Amino acid sequence: MTVLEQRGAYHPSPPPAWRPRTDPAPLLPDAEPHRVLGTDAARGADPALMRRLYGELVRGRRYNAQATALTKQGRLAVYPSSTGQEACEVAAALVLEDRDWLFPSYRDTLAAVARGLDPVQALTLLRGDWHTGYDPREHRVAPLSTPLATQLPHAVGLAHAARLKGDDVVALALVGDGGTSEGDFHEALNFAAVWQAPVVFLVQNNGFAISVPLAKQTAAPSLAHKAVGYGMPGRLVDGNDALAVHEVLADAVRRAREGGGPTLVEAVTYRLDAHTNADDATRYRAADEVEAWRAHDPITLLEQELTARSLLDEAGIEAARADAEAMAADLRARMNEDPPLDPMDLFAHVYAEPTPQLREQREQLRAELAAEREGA
Amino acid sequence: MTVLEQRGAYHPSPPPAWRPRTDPAPLLPDAEPHRVLGTDAARGADPALMRRLYGELVRGRRYNAQATALTKQGRLAVYPSSTGQEACEVAAALVLEDRDWLFPSYRDTLAAVARGLDPVQALTLLRGDWHTGYDPREHRVAPLSTPLATQLPHAVGLAHAARLKGDDVVALALVGDGGTSEGDFHEALNFAAVWQAPVVFLVQNNGFAISVPLAKQTAAPSLAHKAVGYGMPGRLVDGNDALAVHEVLADAVRRAREGGGPTLVEAVTYRLDAHTNADDATRYRAADEVEAWRAHDPITLLEQELTARSLLDEAGIEAARADAEAMAADLRARMNEDPPLDPMDLFAHVYAEPTPQLREQREQLRAELAAEREGA
Amino acid sequence: MTTVALKPATMAQALTRAMRDAMAADPTVHVLGEDVGTLGGVFRVTDGLAAEFGEDRCTDTPLAEAGILGTAVGMAMYGLRPVVEMQFDAFAYPAFEQLVSHVAKTRNRTRGAMPLPITVRVPYGGGIGGVEHHSDSSEAYYMATPGLHVVTPATVADAYGLLRAAIASDDPVVVLEPKRLYWSKDSWNPEEPAAVEPLGRAVVRRSGRSATLITYGPSLPVCLEAAEAARAEGWDLEVVDLRSLVPFDDETVCASVRRTGRAVVVHESAGFGGPGGEIAARVGERCFHHLEAPVLRVAGFDIPYPPPMLERHHLPGVDRILDAVGRLQWEAEG
Amino acid sequence: MTTVALKPATMAQALTRAMRDAMAADPTVHVLGEDVGTLGGVFRVTDGLAAEFGEDRCTDTPLAEAGILGTAVGMAMYGLRPVVEMQFDAFAYPAFEQLVSHVAKTRNRTRGAMPLPITVRVPYGGGIGGVEHHSDSSEAYYMATPGLHVVTPATVADAYGLLRAAIASDDPVVVLEPKRLYWSKDSWNPEEPAAVEPLGRAVVRRSGRSATLITYGPSLPVCLEAAEAARAEGWDLEVVDLRSLVPFDDETVCASVRRTGRAVVVHESAGFGGPGGEIAARVGERCFHHLEAPVLRVAGFDIPYPPPMLERHHLPGVDRILDAVGRLQWEAEG
Ligand SMILES: Cc1ncc(C[n+]2csc(CCOP(=O)(O)OP(=O)(O)O)c2C)c(N)n1
Ligand SMILES: Cc1ncc(C[n+]2csc(CCOP(=O)(O)OP(=O)(O)O)c2C)c(N)n1
Ligand SMILES: [Mg+2]
Ligand SMILES: [Mg+2]
After folding, report:
1. Would you call B153 and C71 a contact, using CB atoms and an 8 Å cutoff?
2. What is the pTM of this model?
3. CA pair distance C327, A374, nearest whole angstrom
4. Would you say C55 and B8 are in contact if contact means Cβ atoms under 8 Å apart?
5. Is the Cβ pair C273, D133 closer than 8 Å?
6. Do A153 and D115 touch (CB under 8 A)?
């Protein structure tokens, strides 16, 4: 029996015998976002995981600050910060096995970095020396996707292909609240559910798509409720609770790996910085809204839990900060060097073999550069 | 306060105070498709409406047969029959006020005809003498849409525009089960819900998208469940029960007119004929499936109710048939005449004013035709 | 007529002003798109419109380009004049089916009964250091779609005039706005009624006798600069700014080329399959016996738009234009 | 080598055979699209593949073209070779963003680390009496997109050869299949290894001395017919079948035009902004001093594709081609 045949034959029945194809009840998200930190459930959590998450959150926050600073020094063309959303970024990275794939959007360099990518490589797109700075297959991290939601069908196709090959691979795809409005979101989720592909969709609902607030984006009870319409479970989670995000994603990844099909997870979080360094967020939101969210900071939440349980002390906090500083210093130093550039690269990868037309154009540029050098 | 401001300001709240934007419970469709015929509820139904529906169903069935016959005689380029789906087509047409708008797909010429369009005009696209045979504004019937689901955002935009102008107009858009997989379906429903546009979406789930059965199209509990993800109510109805379809649509239209926003209605029905005259349905479905659905024929269902309640007798049935025959005879006669054709029309309507390039090309064709006439 | 002092303004400001004036003059004009309302657009081109005309007239939509253009079609069907903003060139692609299969064809489909007066504003082209997908030159796609008008301003005054004309047109118009000219400044008098240009007219921006540079939008300033530099080489270049790609102004273009006998088409869009092919072919067909040399093209390379740090090598610059002019077989002349 | 009897087959059959052979030879080849499985496609081009290779290898997808192409991208990222069928030309438009922003660019984006060996089959063009949206010639869109190969067969043997080559290519190839030639028949030997054509080579289908008709796909038979008819007028026409629009075979085309000194480009796609502009411009640039007359174009009109009853007036036919040949300034010759 083929993979696709497993879903069972189609037995249509006239309305007198109508029955739903799937029981909708288990697909519906809970009324409240899932939370672990600050609840009894946190007591059962694995201390090693909590410390790991904490360390990455602190690094992540520092990484965001450093990258933003690099835009001011002209070392990055643009930076969309994930400050405030580190719990989602980090949990998404940590929940995956090495063989799994991550499909980030343009905002998710942090997830790629937390997965182990060299930050300089992860930032290549935003630095502007090339479009992607790493080999996606080496790291199982797809290129950062700028066209919104277009990476979601890629994740579905890859997960489906892995399943067809009998590989035990899960794809996790990230998308924003705004991205859920795109047709590609819809098509991807539908394909995933029909094919029962091992894929997890994580929507980081950070309240805004640039300036557009969620209320202008959707009238749904929650974004997680969209899952029902595809016949997959929808899960709602506090996106600033790193443990909760990790738990919900781990469940979804396990389910996918076991052949249970896709899950849609909505993480409710907030973008504390502006859309990018080029954006002025004061044009569309009030300072007190931002302040309210600062009081629900993902790092503080985890730090409180860890210190309350004596899993972290001042020295541990200091060590995490020092580690983050070292990462930032290294990043700063390396980003302050000009990347090697070769204009001939423009022609090298358009096709496996350059067309005759591209060969002509390459020679033209070569001659121009030679003339430039002579002139200089 | 503007129309769009009515939806209320955005008051985001951190997860501790999270609450759903909409209560999902009332949005969920019932577990069973709504039915009236054969139930106690039918007794309360308006006899005049029932008779009207009956007459139109009989005409509709005859219309489908006639149009299919015309393809065999080369009088239509192609015909996608709605045989078996007449209850949906007819109810959609009858539920609307004159000022309302209908947005049909390529399969829905019958809905346009039941709304009052001349069948010859409605069939222009399929006859092949032009793309649209009527003035959409005169009849408030949008052009038949061939690219699937693309008409849905049009319906939303029109309904929204009417509301902005303060007009009491509802748009009803038709789409197939296959069409629900398209990105445009998603985007249209989302816009409709966010804007609270007065629009009703009627999905005719006839079990197939050409050869592809519903199980390969979606894993959702029902297509009506897709509504929840947009924050609009989803309604499930027996699409072969003309009274039930009319009732559910009438509720949705009323709700839209009163400012309550959009509704998604899934009508469960069946395409008794092949996809079009050019299709061979035996390649993908068994005869017994078709037979099972024939036993749930929309005309029979209504006829049984009417005769049981003595609202219809043999003479009435005869009269309906005769009326349908007359319509078919007239259609046949008029379709057997060649439509007037003017090749110069190719250039007449591309722009308000032909471009200089089109003027040149028009003269070229004029000269060619003159030469052809001379040669002949 | 009173004399009005000319005030310097940017192209972005002229575009804003065009929408404002159109909205004030005609209550059926509606602006919609991503971030066009509260934020005033990522380029601030719709700045102030929501404040002045309300959210119903200048609307932040959900993030879905096919939905934006598709609902605009419905709004136009009901008699409104939607002005749609696509945030960047490459983000108009999701709306391609709505554009090609409906926006471009509905008038024709309905024998003129249902024209669609929709304006689609697309910030386009490179040179602003944008990352991938923010610098595409997509004009070839629109030019190849019968039923659309396609215009692109290169000056502040034209930005106002062409956008006003587009909004006033009963047919759909794609207005390609050169991003890198958004902040170009010019003295310009918006009270001047002549500021509303008719669609479909090219203009000679610089007269010359040696050869014609045919260009538009973002490449106009580069061509004018090249023409200045060419004087040192003894070439007196004429520069034609097309302004309208559809309809195409054969008359102005051919009159120039017949005069000069030589032509180079310049644009930053990829050369192969780009607008220059059509333009060079038309000139070749119509001016064959006046040509002293083949019509040459200077265009972007046939590659995906490069990353910011390499874009200068891709964009046609003065040197590349002069190089092409130098290949116009001058020796064969005398 | 044994002699194999040539068997007549239709172009549709050759395409089916190409996929079957590719699937048998390479387990990573997967076919997906609307109705490609159980039904075998609305044109029956995938007939039998699901039965032979199973539903996992030839898959009926949900009805969503961006989803189809988007999932194909993901499959290719994992090492498969997806062959995607778009049901009709105009129904490929919803996938435009995936095609332009991902399929065409991913190899380049990743410096060659992640090539996408995707074949996109698009039945295209008119002449089959199809209602609106079923007869578009969309090749200009694909040609203007760097990173795509674009091929279009005009013969049964090329249908097999080009599709095999497309599937074998490590780069994305758009295979434009001329619908109205699906049922054209030819004797053809699929066992012949030479049947796999390399991409990017044009071929001279008919030699002649007077002028060159440059064409491809659905217009090839029309051009060959025109060439026959031209003999009566004393013209001996050469006919070049491009086969590959990207890459473009300048060599074969220019060699022919340099020989004949005159050229007409023929295609049914709309003329303005269509492939003919690029082709005529290239020939003009490269063969200028060999040309006795301007390169002319015979193309579809610049209009939305007409309804079935009027399409014959739109499609370039023998008379329109001969008329253009007649305008090649023969008097200027002697
Ligand atoms: C298809 C497409 N349309 C528009 C854009 C421009 N754009 C970039 S980010 C953005 C907002 C995205 O919002 P969301 O999905 O919520 O993600 P966030 O930025 O909040 O992480 C927009 C409109 C784009 N990148 N792609
Ligand atoms: C965008 C688009 N893709 C593909 C097609 C080709 N096509 C025509 S009808 C059809 C199936 C439609 O199925 P469904 O939506 O269920 O409507 P039904 O035919 O059952 O009424 C397909 C794939 C199309 N018309 N438009
Ligand atoms: Mg967001
Ligand atoms: Mg159906």
Report:
1. yes
2. 0.97
3. 21
4. no
5. no
6. no
From D40, D63, D133, residue closest to B178, measured CB to CB: D63
Question: Using CA positions, which residue lies closest to atom 26 of ligand 1?
Answer: A147
**Count of residues for chain A?**
376
CB contact set of A173 (below 8 Å; sequence gap of 6+): A103, A151, A152, A154, A155, A188, A199, A200, A201, A202
Do residue B132 and residue C62 have CB atoms under 8 angstroms apart? Answer: no
Does residue A6 carry a pLDDT above 60?
no
> Which of A158, A190, A350 lies nearest to residue D67, judging by beta carbons?
A190
**With contact defined as beta carbons under 8 Å apart, do D329 and D293 qualify?**
yes
State the pLDDT confidence band at D5, using cuts at 50, 70 and 90.
Answer: low
Q: Residues of CATH 3.40.50.920 domain(s) within chain D?
A: 203-333
Interface residue of D45, D182, D297, D301 to substitute, partner B, most B CBs within 10 Å: D301
Comma-separated ranges of CATH 3.40.50.970 domains in chain D: 9-187
CB pairs under 8 A between A and C: 111
Map A306-351 to HEC letters.
HHHCCCCCHHHHHHHHHHHHHHHHHHHHHHCCCCCCCCCHHHHCCC
C299 C-beta neighbours (distance < 10 Å), count: 24
For domain C203-333, give the fold.
Answer: Rossmann fold (3.40.50)
How far does C120 lie from chain B, in Å, by closest CA?
A: 16
Q: What does DSSP assign to residue A163?
A: H
Mean per-residue pLDDT of chain B: 94
CATH 3.40.30.10 fits B26-335, yes or no: no
How many angstroms does the Cα of residue B210 sit away from the middle of ligand 2?
7
- DSSP-assigned states of every residue in B337-358: SPPP--TTHHHHSSSSS--HHH
Q: Which CATH class is domain C9-187?
A: alpha beta
Contact of C208 with C127, CB cutoff 8 Å: no
Which residue from B26, B204, A129 is spatially nearest to C310, judged by alpha carbons? A129
Is the pLDDT reported for residue B3 higher than 80?
A: no
pLDDT of residue A18: 64
The pLDDT value recorded for residue B2 is 56
Task: Name, in order, each residue with C-beta under 8 angstroms of D133's C-beta and a sequence gap of 6 or more.
Answer: B146, B147, C101, D88, D89, D90, D91
Mutate to test the pocket of ligand 2, among D65, D86, D87 (most ligand atoms within 8 A of CB): D87
For chain C, the residue count is: 334
| Pick among B170, B350, B361 to test the C interface (most C CBs inside 10 A) | B350
- The ligand with the least distance to the CA atom of B88 is 2
Is cis: bond before C247, omega within 30 of 0?
A: yes
pLDDT in tens, D25-71: 999 999 999 999 999 999 999 999 999 999 999 999 999 999 999 99
Q: Mean pLDDT across the stretch A258-271?
A: 97
Burial A32-44 (b: 16+ CB within 10 A, else e): ebbbbbbeeebee
Tell me the C-alpha distance between B235 and D45, whole Å. Answer: 39
Nearest alpha carbon to residue B192 among B157, B228, B165 = B157
**Residue B342 burial (10 A CB sphere; 0-12, 13-18, 19+):** exposed
Contact B241, B269 (CB under 8 A): no
Inform me whether the pLDDT recorded for A281 exceeds 70. Answer: yes
Q: Which residues of chain C have pLDDT under 70?
A: 1-6, 192-197, 332-334
A133 has a chain B CB within 8 A of its CB: no
Does position A1 have pLDDT exceeding 70, yes or no? no
Domain boundaries, chain B: 26-335, 345-375
The response to whether residue B178 sits with its C-beta less than 6 Å from ligand 2 reads yes
Q: What is the ipTM of this complex?
A: 0.97
Which residues in chain A are closer than 8 Å to C314, comparing Cβ atoms?
346
Residue A35 and residue A238 in contact, taking contact as beta carbons nearer than 8 Å? yes
Ligand 1 center to C219 CA (angstroms)? 29
Ligand 3 center to B12 CA (angstroms): 13
